[in-house]
């Protein structure tokens, strides 16, 4: 097993903080005490890599939308980098299972896209284009796409497209990267290659990462801490710190210690499938509305695809 790589000293103040967060998708559901996620309490350290696992439909993606400001909580508060979340964050980057690259743009131009539409980069783009292009080329080279800058998405494999998507999410040098099943559609060999790519990017820069995945091996290989969510309404019921030393190579996935953690997490998720919803005393929102200090619920936006959600997250 490899020797541990020292982790830089982290700030005592959490980078991500959820304090008794509940979310109902609209006022009608709120009045009926029907929640997508409930009583979420979480503190994530500066530079920490966490993974969220749980049954399908448990609220993992909803948690991601809350984290990046695409959804506002019905009650409770969310702080990112010490600041209350009041709308889409500019300090985060997002990547999804579908790469969502624009087919009429080259790989380089796809990676540059956030800088063309996000302030303050947008107003500086014309004057600093060469600088931004060099930044994009370095990112592409770091994920094995050097020389692919002029290729169009349809000329790239699925794994290459996903690498480009991650570069696009990092081009504005965010403090936090959110990944929603980014490798789920790829074959096993490509998926493991991208685990190593993401590992290397994170170890080089130490931005915060929140990874949503159904792949327990992926979560254990990449994360410092794995959180298990219950079935809907989702809440965190297990926090599992991963003590496996870094840097982790793929060989570690075949060791007894690694497989034991995977089986442990699988057992937690299997047990949760039959767990009844919890309604702690005093935690129900008031009927018909909010009390002072609670965020207003927002209507559910149906039909919001990955690219549109990504675009909304970087426009503000």
From TrEMBL:
Domain ABC transporter, chain residue ranges per copy: 16-256
GO MF: ATP binding; ATP hydrolysis activity
Location of the region described as Disordered in the Swiss-Prot/TrEMBL record: 273-294
Domain of life per record: Bacteria
Keywords: ATP-binding, Cell membrane, Membrane, Nucleotide-binding, Transport
SMART domains: AAA (SM00382)
PANTHER family linked to this entry: ALIPHATIC SULFONATES IMPORT ATP-BINDING PROTEIN SSUB (PTHR42788:SF13), TAURINE IMPORT ATP-BINDING PROTEIN-RELATED (PTHR42788)
Protein family according to the UniProt entry: Belongs to the ABC transporter superfamily.
Name the UniProt record assigns to this protein: Taurine-transporting ATPase
Species of the source: Hydrogenophaga taeniospiralis CCUG 15921
């Amino acid at each position: 097993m490899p020797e541990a790589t020292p982790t830089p000293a982290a700030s005592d103040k959490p980078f991500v903080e959820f304090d008794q967060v509940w979310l109902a998708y609209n006022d009608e559901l709120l009045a009926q005490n029907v929640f997508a996620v409930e009583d979420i309490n979480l503190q994530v350290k500066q530079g920490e890599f966490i993974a969220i696992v749980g049954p399908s439909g448990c609220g993992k993606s909803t948690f991601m939308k809350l984290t990046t400001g695409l959804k506002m909580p019905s009650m409770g508060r969310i702080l990112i980098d010490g600041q209350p979340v009041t709308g889409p964050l500019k300090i985060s980057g997002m990547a999804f299972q579908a790469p969502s690259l624009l087919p009429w743009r080259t790989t380089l131009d796809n990676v540059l896209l956030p800088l063309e539409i996000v302030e303050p980069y947008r107003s500086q783009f014309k004057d600093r284009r060469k600088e931004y292009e060099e930044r994009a080329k370095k990112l592409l080279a770091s994920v094995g796409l050097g020389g692919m800058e002029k290729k169009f998405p349809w000329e790239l494999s699925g794994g290459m497209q996903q690498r480009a998507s991650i570069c696009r999410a990092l081009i504005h040098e965010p403090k936090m990267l959110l990944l929603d099943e980014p490798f789920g559609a790829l074959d096993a060999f490509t998926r493991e290659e991208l685990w190593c790519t993401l590992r290397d990017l994170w170890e080089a820069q130490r931005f915060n990462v929140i990874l949503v995945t159904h792949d327990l091996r992926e979560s254990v290989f990449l994360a410092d801490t794995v959180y298990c969510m219950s079935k809907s309404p989702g809440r965190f019921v297990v926090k599992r710190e991963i003590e496996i030393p870094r840097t982790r190579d793929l060989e570690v996935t075949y060791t007894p210690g690694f497989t034991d953690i995977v089986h442990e997490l699988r057992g937690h998720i299997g047990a949760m499938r039959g767990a009844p919803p919890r309604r702690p005393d005093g935690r129900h929102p008031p009927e018909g509305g909010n009390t002072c200090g609670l965020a207003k619920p927002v209507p559910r936006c149906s039909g919001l695809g990955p690219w549109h959600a990504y675009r909304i997250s970087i426009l503000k």
